[in-house]
Amino acid sequence: MGFCSMTISELIKSLVAYLEKESLILNEDEVWATNRILEVLNLSSIDEDASSKEMELEDILKGILDYACETGICENSVVYRDLLDTKIMGAVLPRPSEVIKTFKEKYSVSPEKATEYYYHFARKSDYIREYRVKNDMKWVTSTEYGDIDITINLSKPEKDPKAIAAATKLEASSYPKCPLCKTNEGYAGRVNHPARQNHRIIPVTLDGDSYFLQYSPYVYYNEHCIVFDGNHVPMKISEKGFRRLFSFIKQFPHYFIGSNSDLPISGGSILTHEHFQGGNYTFAQARAEIETELKFTGFDDIKAGIVKWPMSVIRLIGEDTDRICTLAGKILECWRNYSDDEAFIIAKTEDGVPHNTITPITRFRNGKYEIDLVLRNNITTEECPDGFYHPHPEYHNIKKENIGLIEVMGLAVLPARLKTEMQALKAAILNGEDITKNEAISKHAEWAEKFILSENPTKENIDEITRNAIGNTFSKILEQCGVFERNEEGRKQFLKFVEEVNKN
Fold it and tell me: What does the pLDDT look like over 266-310, one tens digit per residue?
């Protein structure tokens, strides 16, 4: 047999014991939970004398899934296994109303207790597949802007050919409309849409509007949460949006929260659904200090300045969020319409397409509220068809994808391909091979010459040199995404924009 030596009855009993241990069910729920699992597996009985074993959830589910595949219940591929184990977990978890009730009870003690409970639920229910997340490669690189976080994302499994083929035969579906819609809660999924039976969302009101809180299934940092609009409406950066961000911060002051921009290239991966991202984590950008103080006319009560960061960031600090949002809205409005040919900033092209927007990040720190306004522009050129304020072609070997909110704050989310490519590059360098002749890694040749070979790598230090090279490259990529260059001329151009804000 292809599955573990434990019987299916032992595995089921072990899963029920795990659920009780992690407070996902109570003792009174044991028989019910057992029967629910039997139902999902098309089994009519269990060996009541079977014993349970304390195991990791990953190992329990693997044993059950191996049994299911061996007995023909489930296709043995990652997509179908994911659909089945989510169905199993969904069958035994509390209803949404129960989770919301517990969350509110915890919140009455403190916001920290509420999010602590909810994050534990998301992790232990297998909604966040911790055993995959831990496979992500992570390290910190020291740069002139502080210690930035680097992640090579290995959490998302590749779809197998059978699932891809099956997906092509499915009728087009608009339900749920996107991965962020509230209609994902409890959804069984399909080969081209993840199962979400173990998904529970928490309603939150932001400045009078209906939103929902959830955690990202691919947590890139501690308590990585997503706060999304109850309606499927597109992303829109606005003063109203700033007020929603601060509304969230007032309810969860131990979290930060920010938003991707609302334009392609400068935004994140999902621009069709209004949402924010936050969490209980301090990024390098938050640690960066103001290097040039600014004064905005009529806002003497707001401390303002340019942040020492590779991208172009205005930080506003104050006690009155209404005042902060009014000023932030003024800066946004001015930036939307701001052009400076010398700085290569074009607000709108001749066809009327807008290019200027903002990536905002809010937090509560030292008794005051803060918002970082990251100035963005998504214009393209012949030399940079993917975006001028975007990773330039010279660094596409490391990252070609959009620089969204998470990257803006100082956490690089890099593609999984880099793991194998860097291993091959390391071997080639240590063996003295001509990198340009190796098709798999030739795209790294020029970069390696500049960032790795110049450091005289040896077997003992090449890993550290490579990690630092990737981290410092990411720092330079962020500089390329900054609309004002980090030099004296760029500083003057930045201050010129500030003067324009003060004229209005």
Answer: 977 789 999 999 999 999 999 999 999 999 999 999 999 999 999
- DSSP result, 272-306: SS-EEEEES---HHHHPPEEEEE--TT-TTSEEEE
Residues 6+ apart with CB under 8 A from 48: none
> How many CA atoms, within 13 angstroms, populate the side-chain half-sphere of residue 223?
20
Extract the tokens encoding 121. Answer: 């639920």
Helical spans, DSSP H, in 71-204: 78-92, 96-109, 111-124, 130-133, 161-168
CA–CA distance, 473 with 465 (Å, rounded to integer)? 12
Q: What is the dihedral of CA 343, 344, 345, 350, to 10 degrees?
A: 150
Q: How far is CA 41 from the centre of its chain?
A: 33
For the chain, what is the radius of gyration of the CA atoms? 25
Per-residue burial over 418-450, b = 16 or more CB atoms within 10 Å of its CB, e = otherwise: bbebbebbbebbeeeeebeebeebebbbebbee
Q: Which of 231, 194, 198, 197 is nearest to 212 (CA)?
A: 231
Task: Round to whole Å and give the CA distance between 501 and 306.
Answer: 14
**For 29-53, what is the HEC assignment?**
HHHHHHHHHHHHCCCCCCCCCCCCC
Amino acid in position 108: S
**E strands, 126-251, in order:** 137-143, 146-152, 202-206, 209-215, 225-229
pTM of the model: 0.94
* Pairwise CA distance, residues 249 & 362, whole Å: 7
Q: Residue 372, SS3? A: strand
CB 103 within 8 A of CB 202: yes
Coil/strand/helix, residue 388: coil
Q: What angle do CA 130, 131, 133 make, to 5 degrees?
A: 60
**CB within 8 Å of 369: residues ≥ 6 apart:** 246, 249, 317, 318, 319, 321, 324, 362, 363
Q: Round to whole Å and give the CA distance between 286 and 280.
A: 12
155-171 pLDDT, tens per residue?
A: 866 555 555 566 556 66
pLDDT 10s digits, 41-85: 999 999 999 999 999 999 999 999 999 999 999 999 999 999 999
